Amino acid sequence: MFFASLLLGLLAGVSASPGHGRNSTFYNPIFPGFYPDPSCIYVPERDHTFFCASSSFNAFPGIPIHASKDLQNWKLIGHVLNRKEQLPRLAETNRSTSGIWAPTLRFHDDTFWLVTTLVDDDRPQEDASRWDNIIFKAKNPYDPRSWSKAVHFNFTGYDTEPFWDEDGKVYITGAHAWHVGPYIQQAEVDLDTGAVGEWRIIWNGTGGMAPEGPHIYRKDGWYYLLAAEGGTGIDHMVTMARSRKISSPYESNPNNPVLTNANTTSYFQTVGHSDLFHDRHGNWWAVALSTRSGPEYLHYPMGRETVMTAVSWPKDEWPTFTPISGKMSGWPMPPSQKDIRGVGPYVNSPDPEHLTFPRSAPLPAHLTYWRYPNPSSYTPSPPGHPNTLRLTPSRLNLTALNGNYAGADQTFVSRRQQHTLFTYSVTLDYAPRTAGEEAGVTAFLTQNHHLDLGVVLLPRGSATAPSLPGLSSKEEEGGQDLMIPHVRFRGESYVPVPAPVVYPIPRAWRGGKLVLEIRACNSTHFSFRVGPDGRRSERTVVMEASNEAVSWGFTGTLLGIYATSNGGNGTTPAYFSDWRYTPLEQFRD
Ligand SMILES: *[C@@H]1O[C@H](CO)[C@@H](O)[C@H](O)[C@H]1NC(C)=O
Ligand SMILES: *[C@@H]1O[C@H](CO)[C@@H](O)[C@H](O)[C@H]1NC(C)=O
Ligand SMILES: *[C@@H]1O[C@H](CO)[C@@H](O)[C@H](O)[C@H]1NC(C)=O
Ligand SMILES: *[C@@H]1O[C@H](CO)[C@@H](O)[C@H](O)[C@H]1NC(C)=O
Ligand SMILES: *[C@@H]1O[C@H](CO)[C@@H](O)[C@H](O)[C@H]1NC(C)=O
Ligand SMILES: *[C@@H]1O[C@H](CO)[C@@H](O)[C@H](O)[C@H]1NC(C)=O
Ligand SMILES: *[C@@H]1O[C@H](CO)[C@@H](O)[C@H](O)[C@H]1NC(C)=O
Ligand SMILES: *[C@@H]1O[C@H](CO)[C@@H](O)[C@H](O)[C@H]1NC(C)=O
């Protein structure tokens, strides 16, 4: 065993050979938008490819996987959680902080392993059913069907990861529910059945709140334990400990924390929850989550994003991480290669996105639902409506029953906000017939944090003003109908949001298609606009709203479309076309 571990240390290539070429320059975040809690690996056996997984909470498909061969061009290759049968319980979670928490991705024995937790945050900390710890595996991560159903194992905690020791024993390490901790626990596990042995405390952290996100690395005859502490807010940090034995005693690094932006003025805050991997030259890298908020921590609609840094880790010594900023310098990178397989787009594409929804084609891989969708509510290019996506309304609106729980599907499909400044617009063809029916666009963070611009059928006299700002008010409500279509902005958040505004749709626009637009006009505000299709000069600002309303919690803003009967009986479909997302600018400092 001693010999084997020595050999493994050598094979791991950690002799810090510099690789070829010059040190690299790269930019954070590497995955902009809602991609928190990154876990990455380097897999020489699969064409020298790097793979990363992220948390997804209630979003579906869940647990996105990105791949790269050069650490520069990353492609979304699919999702671990891509079928309801893999984990039916995601349909039942309560609260926006529930769902899939931090996954760990590892490769062992020619298999990809993904260990994570489905958390139901509405239940007491000590209730075992709050923490549904699960294992997925796949031979081929590019093929959605290759990912197994979840195998469950018992642990009253979260942030679980697998580790294969040199003697053949397999361990799970995780963070115990923090109010009864704080501590990092470990047990032996059978990854195929989920049977676990006795849980033991192996480290209590350095005293920061909520030691979590543990990862173990074998190097130079040591077991290095990396963890996050301080909570996933402004005090977040990465700490390390090491031991000669896997179980303990772990001694803390005297230089902790190894990575944090706490108490700095950096635009990149909340840096923590890290994972380490090395490239083919044995140079070490780390990923972590970070929030582009500055220390004010008020405006960060994209939430917790994935950042990367270079790590220098000489033999027998503790690693040194370069602090996180927007422009980074690090080890030489492999030459640029854009030949990654898989369905999704490359991250950070500067190109405008224009989706046309071909008939019978699956929706693009980067589009996201909230929990499991009702597939029949989404029809690409139905007969007579080419290049459109038809949405059938759900009874539930975006807030659903109480802002926390849905209990049934919500018709809503979205993409992540991935740029500080952007415009997102769609064309809507919609003639609501039943009172309360609504379809529109939203900047959605959670069921109780969203800003919506919709077309809704309301009784005559419902408007908050006789006409849209800047338009003349003559007879907008004219005619005989008791119910007329209105345009409505409304917001929902834990912070104050503008009061709803409701305007009758101008008579000159009625019966035609409308363009609905959300624009990030600066780093703090969105504007919501509406206008008749094809007459850009008539596009009107309905509302400017602070993005503080969608800067909260664990997830990041989704930009998307919805259709709902608002609890009523309406079933009128809404036809969306010309889905355009145009990146304008990325702020990095
Ligand atoms: C979720 O919340 C709803 C409404 O508060 C409640 O009826 C339901 O029992 C909760 N479900 C779970 C699984 O906790
Ligand atoms: C997990 O715990 C429950 C109840 O304590 C028990 O019934 C179940 O068999 C355990 N599952 C495993 C895989 O050990
Ligand atoms: C961690 O803290 C617990 C509870 O305070 C204590 O029982 C345990 O001995 C500590 N373990 C280590 C490894 O420090
Ligand atoms: C930040 O500063 C506070 C107050 O001085 C201190 O308690 C805390 O440990 C610091 N955090 C880090 C990660 O350095
Ligand atoms: C190259 O990057 C590594 C990792 O950040 C650093 O340790 C090293 O000093 C850099 N080398 C040069 C020549 O700048
Ligand atoms: C962004 O725009 C809004 C609305 O025009 C304005 O109130 C706000 O002060 C602007 N913020 C910044 C940082 O310029
Ligand atoms: C959203 O749905 C809930 C429950 O169906 C309902 O109580 C609420 O009024 C709806 N919101 C709007 C704006 O209609
Ligand atoms: C929905 O339809 C049912 C049955 O026709 C009726 O009783 C109910 O009042 C309707 N609900 C609304 C909100 O219109």
UniProtKB/TrEMBL annotation:
The lineage of its organism: Eukaryota, Fungi, Dikarya, Ascomycota, Pezizomycotina. Residues 362-582 form the Beta-xylosidase C-terminal Concanavalin A-like domain. CDD domains: GH43_PcXyl-like. Gene3D superfamilies: 2.60.120.200, Glycosyl hydrolase domain, family 43 (2.115.10.20). Belongs to the glycosyl hydrolase 43 family. The record marks 159 as: Important for catalytic activity, responsible for pKa modulation of the active site Glu and correct orientation of both the proton donor and substrate. GO terms for molecular function: hydrolase activity, hydrolyzing O-glycosyl compounds. Transmembrane segments: none annotated. This is Glycoside hydrolase family 43 protein. GO terms for biological process: carbohydrate metabolic process. Residues 1-16 form the signal peptide. SUPFAM superfamilies: Arabinanase/levansucrase/invertase (SSF75005), Concanavalin A-like lectins/glucanases (SSF49899). InterPro entries: ConA-like_dom_sf, GH43_C2, Glyco_hydro_43, Glyco_hydro_beta-prop_sf, Glycosyl_Hydrlase_43. It comes from Thermothelomyces thermophilus (strain ATCC 42464 / BCRC 31852 / DSM 1799) (Sporotrichum thermophile). Keywords: Glycosidase, Hydrolase, Signal. Pfam families: GH43_C2 (PF17851), Glyco_hydro_43 (PF04616).
